[in-house]
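Page 47, continued from p. 46.
Same chain as before, 259 aa.
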Amino acid sequence: MTEDPKPVRYTASRQRRRLARALALVLLQFVAVSYLTAAASLLFWSHAPELIGWHPRVVLTGSMMPVIEPGDVAVIGPAVPGPVSLPRGRIILVRDPLLRSGFYLHRVLRYDDQGHVITKGDANRTPDSAPVVAQQILGQLRLLVPIVGRPVVWLQDGDYVPLAASALATWAALAVISGGVGPGGFGATGLGSLAGVRPRAERRAGGREGRFSRVRRARSADLVGSSGSDEVDDGRRGVAVRLGLPAAITKARIRATAR
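Result:
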């Protein structure tokens, strides 16, 4: 006498839906990792040059578009004023106390008769009205890191909607990374449980428990088929012992123990 197979818990369609949710979660984690990796890389390159004396500046206006856009980080290195060291076409950082930021980043257009620099923004139609003297030049553009300074621009302009959206996206990416993969494996916490994916340790434990349960049921079925009961009575002790073993082996072990 054998026991009927255990019914299947989930239908094939439900398993396919769970698989689709798990694949969607993997894709979401890939997007989160890519976003955080890109953000970390941009932050690194905007600050790492400080080790060699270069300084980052967030671009706040669009006077150098399309080459440089608001929110880009311009990494400025030292510059020696002069037609040879700063030829036409170089982008320089100029101090201007009349501006809100106190600085602007424009391209060298030419030198006048007094040796002063005439600058112009790429997006402007005309050159800057005031020539730039050597004392105003703070450096030249060495490296441009895009996008990473956008939150500074949004904050300064009072544009809080994209600022909040950026903060929320960063928080969500961190939550996906920290919650989707835990000590127990994929799905240990966070979105993994929402996708119906059990942790690896839980799946292993469930698999072992299921195998052991099937073995116990099979042994119990064999015992019922051979002796009609899964209880073995020891007359000397008057104890009923439930064992999932064939009756003959059980009785032999009990006799040996009693002796």
